[in-house]
Amino acid sequence: MHRLKAHLALEESARRDGNGQLLSRLTGEFHVLLAEMHDNSLLMDIMRRLVTLSRLIIYVHESPLAHVCPEYEYGDLVAATEARDSERAGPLMIEHLDHVQGGLRFAPEAREDLDLGNVFTSPKV
Ligand SMILES: [Zn+2]
Fold first, then answer.
1. Ligand 1 mean position to 59 CA, how many Å?
2. Is residue 111 part of a domain?
3. Structural domain boundaries enclosing 87
4. pLDDT single digits (tens) 63-74
C-alpha cells in the first residue's frame, strides 16, 4: 500500500509542476501498480500492454477540457484497496474508466500538434 501512496505523491508533484508528460506516464503506471498487488504475472503483462495502448489513445484523442485519471479517484481507489473493499473498489474503477473514456473525443480532424514521441520517451522528472 505504501507504494500506491508514494505513487500518488509523485502524481501530485507532477500535477503541481504542470508536467503533463510525466503525469500521463504516472497515471498509467498507477494501474500497473494495482495489478502488481495481485501478484499475477499474466494480469501484469496484460495491464502493461493496455496502459501503453491507452496512453497512446488518450494522447491522440483526449479533449483539451478533460482531466484524465483525476487524482481524487485514485485516492478513493487506494482507500478501497487498502480496506480490501472489493464491493467498493470495483465500481470505483468502472466509474474511473468511464471518466477516462468520456474525456476522449474521436473527432475526424487531423491534429498537427501531435508528437507521438511524447508518449514513448521518458519525461524529465
Ligand atoms: Zn487511471
1. 13
2. no
3. 2-106
4. 665 566 777 888
